[in-house]
Write a structure and sequence with these properties.
The structure is a homodimer. Chain A has about 130 residues and is mainly alpha-helical. Helices cover about 55% and strands about 10% of the residues of chain A. Chain A has 2 domains: about 60 residues, Arc Repressor Mutant, subunit A (Orthogonal Bundle); about 40 residues. In chain A, helix 1 packs across helix 3 and helix 2 crosses helix 3. Chains A, B: One of its GO terms (molecular function) is DNA binding.
Chain lengths: ~130, ~130
DNA sequence: CTAACTGTTATATTTATAGTATAACAGATG
DNA sequence: CATCTGTTATACTATAAATATAACAGTTAG
């Protein structure tokens, strides 16, 4: 699993870490039950602090994306994922709403917006790079 | 224009302000050329500081959503909006990507995700409340 | 002209978050 | 026993967010 971080980004490192792992799970590059590197080794790998990785892992654990065993270390959730809770639906809508509103302001119609979402969906599930042809 | 802020939210006040104004423009509640309240009056109205409003206005101006005249005050962009720049497209995709990835992890298929986007799109353009029936 | 308003700028302070740096603890493993 | 795990605690630095005053320059209504 290759982690790409932008240390100059305004999105926190631990958030970027969470997003990359979640995207890895969505794409299938990270399989259920697959082990993730320890907080220390991953931190050393990408040149950041132990606690930054630990924060990402802890949050992912709280949301049910990973499991943390004292002995085995960290593994991708082998059982069923959290699923569609009401809390999640509200949070998802709150995240999408301002993005859609801006798209409307910039002249995108419904078809164009849906096309973008469709593209991103298949890009993720078919495991393509961001700047794929 | 009614502004609703959540002071306990983790999203900054100036960001919430920007989102509400952009959503107002997308819904048509804010018409092109329509005047917006002055930084001082709006700040007093919603009980926050002058500079917080000014930050939101300045950013909205930089992105072309509003115009600021020394005399007339602040008005909703009367001319054409920014439109589809390459910068915007990349920023939009970067915002959508983690949201879509999480949706996939939680078991949403493409049709379900598109339905959510379609719903939000029409909710915004038809000017409905968040918890509309 | 004066007073009241506009956006703008400058400065200082407080608060919270992000990230780093060490260190130690408890359990598992070879 | 030495080494790895996650976990916790503490302290520090840097940055962003928000507030608090104050002042400046231009506009506008009385």
């Amino acid at each position: 699993m290759i982690i790409e971080l932008d240390l100059q980004s305004d999105t926190p490192i631990y958030t970027q870490l969470m997003n990359q792992i979640i995207e890895g799970m969505a794409s299938g590059r990270l399989q259920p039950g697959e082990p993730l590197p320890s907080v220390r080794s991953l931190a050393a790998d990408i040149g950041i602090n132990l606690h930054t990785v630990n924060k990402a892992y802890t949050l992912l654990k709280q949301e049910g994306f990973i499991q943390i065993h004292r002995q085995k270390g960290v593994v991708v959730q082998p059982d069923a994922l959290p699923g569609m809770t009401s809390d999640y639906a509200h949070r998802r809508d709150a995240q999408l709403r301002p993005i859609i509103a801006e798209a409307i302001c910039r002249g995108m119609n419904e078809q164009q917006l849906l096309a973008v979402v469709r593209d991103l969906y298949s890009h993720i599930t078919t495991n393509e790079r961001k700047d794929a042809p």
